[in-house]
Every structure is written in C-alpha cells, then in structure tokens.
Design brief:
16-stranded antiparallel barrel
Length: about 425
C-alpha cells in the first residue's frame, strides 16, 4: 500500500468514526448551508492549520476534501425591557466529502458527512423574540449532524441521495443566508418546524430525488422522519432514529442565467457573478394528527407553503459579482393549527461596496412574523406582528471573516416592546 493511499484510509476512517468531526461534494462545490457556508470557498492555503505538509492537497486530488471551521455569534441586547446581557454562541464544524469518481473510478458516486460541537448563550430565548438574533443558536450539543450517499446520472440531471440530513438545509433555506445573521434570513424560514420539518444539526433519516427536466428548471422531493423532539431522541446522531411521521417536502425552482444542475441551495462570491437568480415554490406536508386550540380536537395532517425569490439586480461589470442583489420570501400554514403561521422576509445586499483589498458586503434585512389569533388567551390583547430589521457588514481576508451587525425588533414576541441588539459574527477556517 502506498503512502498516499494509507493517508486517504487513515483520514476517512477518522471521519467516519466521528473522531474528526465531519460537511460538501468537492472543494469547488459548496454544500454547507446558512452561517456555515463559505463566502469564499477555501483553497489549501486558506486554512489556519495550513496544508498539513501537502497532505490536504494530495487528498483533494484523490477526491477527499476535509473542512474544519469555527464560527461564533457575539450579541448584546443594548436596549430592551430585560436587563442587558451578553450572549456568545459557538460552533465548531468539521466535514468530509468523498468523490468516488476520483478515489476509485466510481463516477457519479459521492459521500458526505459532517459533525458539530456547539454551545453558549441563546439571546433569542432570553429576549423572547420570534426571529432569533442568531441563525446558529439552538441547543448545546456534540453530535454527528448529517451524512449521505449520493448518486448522479446524466450530467447531474438526475440526483438521488439517502442517509441522514435536514430538510431545512435544502427546502425553505435562504439562498443568501451567509450574508445575514438573524435566523430567518441567515438560515431558513423560522416556522418550517410547523410540520416538524427536520433542521440542522439534529438531522433525521431522509431520502431525496432531484430532476432537471429542462434547462434552468429543477424539481426535487424529499421525505424525512418528522421527529418533534430530535435533540432528545437522538443525542449523538450516530444511530439513525425513526421517530414521528414521514414529512414530505417538494420544490420546483427556476434559475435564469444558470443551468439548473449547477444550482445548489447556497450562495458564495463565485456563484454571484453575472445576473444569476433563483425562484422557488415549495410545500411541506405531515400526515400526523395536529390539535387545533379553537376546539381542542385533533385533525389529520398539516402543511406549509413557501415562495422564495433571489435575484442579482445590478452589476458594475456584467461578468463579475460587484453590485446589488435582492431577496424576498413568504410562507403560510393554516392558522387554526399553527401559532406562527406566516413569515415574510426581504433583503438587499451590496457586494464589494468599499474599494478596499479585502472581500466585503453590506446587507439589509427585514423579517415579519405573524401569530395566529386562535392561539391567544381569552381576555388578553391580540398578538401583534413582530417586525425585525438587520444591517450588517461583512469583511473577509483569507481564512478569517468578521461580520458586525445591528438589529432592531418591534413588538417582541408578538407583544408591545422593543429591543436593539448589537454584536458581530466571527468565522475562521481551521
């Protein structure tokens, strides 16, 4: 056995055993979502730990790609009806992706796995906001997040995937998520769990099929275990746990300016070049029984519909990324069984607004959450719509990213009250 093959087997074994936490298809094909996605896809020289004496580059040539990153959100409520508090949420994520076409000449076959450690203070829970100030914060955990085997046919026109992964990573996920920090803009629409749609990091067993019937258009569908308490039912993620009813999600997308087979649910500087856009309509359905607060009787089935649009509006150079982008999303689910039944998000982003030698963006986002009046208590005022605004600036040089942010909330938690949150996100490629 050669030294090169020995190196491959050693690192792959570590990743599969969970010793090296492990998440994308190749170095050039991003699969990380939300805050974990890369603004600039890193090369061998863009890691704090370097190229491992050339081993990282050797592995990539063989189709084995490793990524390890640290991300933190440091946020303060500088103005609210609660005492001022500092909250820092931390995440370390490791990924491994294997292209078996390069490794063993099995063309069109891929493997992906990712593990995560995360923990810290959740400012959204403390303030009682519907839209969480951080798109990362959820529960303290150290676990295998997701893994899958993927097979592609016909130049990526047909793709099948099976394993353990999250529906919210790929359905209802914000295409420009890396440009925002607030949850509905920085990850996925925050009420997708109405149907128990699985999320990251407590992913559940799942399978997906994706078809590109004509250029610029794709259709995809996924089914996953709709576990109402995924963190407690599977604390390590190592053994797939089938809990709850099977939740099905389907989406059709149109991608002017790009071949549909090349479009993923993610966005980075390279994909922004030119006048790219993505228009999506999706639906999620859970056949389980849900209880209506109006009559305390259960009913069979619950669903959610969403519409999303992202588009490059203006470019200084038609072939480059510098310019203005816009995003808009809306979803709806039946108000008699879903408390947070409607979410609207909208945003603008300016790529490279400052003439400086480092990558930079400035982004403005708006989130409106509406709560169903059927969930209110008798004799109390009705819910108000929670409005949230965010402005952030992103700066990245090499392996380090800094993203200062300020957020303003009106009608916190659907009740009268305001809050101002200030802080920053920091990300480092290790």
């Amino acid at each position: 056995m050669t030294e090169r093959n020995s190196c491959v087997l050693t690192f792959v074994s570590l990743a599969l055993l969970g010793v090296m936490p492990a998440r994308s298809q190749t170095a050039k094909e991003e699969t990380l979502v939300g805050p974990d996605s890369h603004e600039i896809v890193p090369g061998p020289g863009d890691h704090l730990l370097g190229d491992w004496g050339g081993r990282r580059s050797q592995l990539e040539e063989l189709g084995v790609v490793f990524d390890l990153q640290y991300i933190s959100d440091s946020l303060w409520n500088i103005k609210s009806d609660k005492p001022e508090r500092f909250a820092m949420w931390n995440r370390v994520r490791g990924t491994v992706d294997i292209d078996f076409g390069k490794l063993s000449r099995r063309d069109g076959l891929y493997f992906h796995a990712t593990a995560v450690w995360q923990g810290g203070g959740n400012l959204g829970t403390y303030l009682g906001t519907i839209a969480s100030p951080s798109g990362m914060s959820s529960a303290n955990t150290f676990r295998l997040d997701s893994w899958w085997l993927e097979k592609r046919w016909g130049g990526d026109r047909i793709v099948a995937r099976a394993g353990q992964f999250a529906e919210q990573d790929f359905y209802g996920a914000q295409h420009y998520a890396a440009s925002f920090i607030i949850e509905p803009m920085g990850y996925a629409l925050n009420n997708l769990f109405n149907t128990y749609e699985s999320f990251d990091p407590p992913s559940t067993p799942a399978a997906e099929i994706r078809v590109v019937p004509v250029p610029h258009t794709y259709v995809k569908s996924m089914v996953a275990a709709g576990d109402p308490a995924p963190f407690s039912h599977n604390q390590t993620g190592l053994v797939p746990t089938f809990r709850g009813s099977p939740v099905s999600v389907s989406e059709v997308g149109f991608t002017p300016g790009k071949e549909a087979s090349s479009v993923r649910a993610f966005d980075n500087v390279e994909t922004r070049k030119g006048y790219s856009g993505l228009y999506q309509f999706g639906a999620s359905y859970n056949p389980a029984r849900f209880t209506s607060p109006a009559n305390a009787r259960s009913r069979s089935g619950n669903y959610l519909l969403y519409w999303m649009a992202t588009q490059a509006l203006w470019r200084i150079d038609h072939a480059e990324a510098r310019g203005l982008d816009a995003t808009l999303a809306y979803d709806w689910s039946p108000p008699h069984v879903n408390r947070n039944n409607t979410v609207l998000t909208a945003g603008l982003r300016f790529n490279e607004p400052l003439p400086v030698p480092i990558h930079n963006t400035m982004s403005f986002g708006y989130v409106r959450n509406s709560l169903s009046s059927q969930f209110g208590q008798a004799g109390t005022p009705g819910f108000k719509r929670e409005h949230a605004f965010e402005f952030n600036a992103l700066f990245q040089r090499g392996m380090v990213l800094l993203q200062p942010v300020i957020q303003y909330y009106e009608n916190v938690g659907g009740r009268p009250g305001r809050a101002v949150v200030f802080g920053f996100r920091m990300k480092a490629e290790l």
